Amino acid sequence: ASFFFICLYLHVGRGMYYGSYMYLQTWMVGVILLFLVMGTAFMGYVLPWGQMSFWGATVITNLLSAVPYLGMDLVQWVWGGFAVDNATLTRFFTFHFLLPFIVAAATMIHLLFLHQTGSNNPLGLNSDVDKIPFHPYFSFKDIVGFLALVMILTLLTLLDPYLLGDPDNFTPANPLVTPVHIQPEWYFLFAYAILRSIPNKLGGVIALVLSIAILMILPFTNKSNFRGTQFYPINQILFWSLLVIVILLTWIGARPVEDPYVLVGQVLTVLYFSYYILNPLMFKL
Questions:
Q1: Mean pLDDT by 10 residues, the chain (285 residues)
Q2: Over the Cα atoms of the chain, what is R_g?
Q3: What's the pLDDT at 126?
Q4: What's the Cα-to-Cα distance from 101 to each of 98, 104, 105, 175, rounded to whole Å?
Q5: 50 pairs with which residues across the strands?
Q6: Are 249 and 194 in contact (CB under 8 A)?
Q7: Which of 1, 6, 122, 269 is the most core-located residue (most Cβ within 10 A)?
Q8: What is the C-alpha to C-alpha distance for residues 149 and 138, in angstroms, rounded to an integer?
């Protein structure tokens, strides 16, 4: 799962840098895919039924209670009872099994839209005159990338398989003992830090969803004459600043809820969302 998310985040980052979001349908389906994959990963994280699994499920499903009027009904509907229990585990297992099929279907739609427009390129220009065959050029390039990732994954699996996991998850789930610091897997930490930085529960949930959903506004706010940020130095600085902000948010998400981490998290949250306001404005400078 960790490697899957590394590839996904690299893919999204490349799309943002090179302006691939101008392929509207492809980009929108891609953002929906990201939500689906995150949902699948969250369901899967609950299945080991360790301390972090149990309390992570409790905290995240409880967020639904912030929905006005329907909150508690929704929470109990998801739980299948009045607490996270066997019924919750069973339905999470079912969803974890079914969602990948929906992900596969959405991937096909993603590729279908991509094939209608053709792929983007670093210059953002029409490349019809420079077309080269997919095989051997791209197929070998992809095989090299695939082998490099498999090699790193194999090394990680053989040498330190628990490096990216949480030691608390080896303790069987116990509803009577709350862990000192509840946190999700590392690939959710930036969104978790944004959730924590807003004191109001409903506001936090909205910010959590917006942290990913805001990607959908990129095609509509783009004001550049060239696709991508290759010819816009200020936007390049903003992009790399965004990368640093996301890494710092990931770090903050793993820290306890105390000063100075709370304040730093709030500042970083404001900076994260301000990127999406400043970036289109800087294209016009």
A1: 93 96 96 97 94 93 92 94 93 96 98 92 83 90 95 94 87 90 91 94 95 96 88 95 98 91 96 96 87
A2: 21
A3: 81
A4: 6, 5, 6, 32
A5: 172
A6: yes
A7: 269
A8: 17
Q: How far apart are CA 265 and CA 197, in angstroms?
A: 6
Answer whether 27's CB lies under 8 Å from 219's CB: yes
Max Cα–Cα distance, the chain, nearest Å: 67
Give the DSSP H/E element, type plus range, for residue 249: helix 233-253
Residues 6+ apart with CB under 8 A from 276: 214, 217, 218, 221
Sign of CA dihedral 140, 141, 143, 144: positive
Query: What pLDDT score does 257 carry?
Result: 87
Indicate which residues carry an active-site annotation. 115, 119, 141-142, 185
Residue 48 confidence (pLDDT): 94
- pLDDT recorded at residue 95: 95
- Neighbour count for residue 157 (Cβ, 10 Å): 10
**pLDDT, position 108:** 98
279 burial type by CB count under 10 A (0-12 exposed, 13-18 middle, 19+ buried): buried
Q: What percent of the residues of the chain are helix, what percent strand, and what percent coil, each to the nearest 5? A: 75, 0, 25
**Angstrom distance (rounded) from CA 36 to CA 33:** 5
Length of the chain: 285
Instruction: Round to whole Å and give the CA distance between 219 and 21.
Output: 5
CB-CB contact of 53 with 45 (8 Å):
yes
CATH: 1.10.10.10, 3.40.50.300, 1.20.810.10, 3.20.20.10. Which one for 1-118? 1.20.810.10
What are the residues whose beta carbons fall under 8 Å from the beta carbon of 274, sequence distance 6 or more? Answer: none
**How many angstroms separate the CA atoms of 213 and 186, rounded?**
19
Which amino acid is it at 274? S
* Residue 149 burial (CB count, 10 A): 13
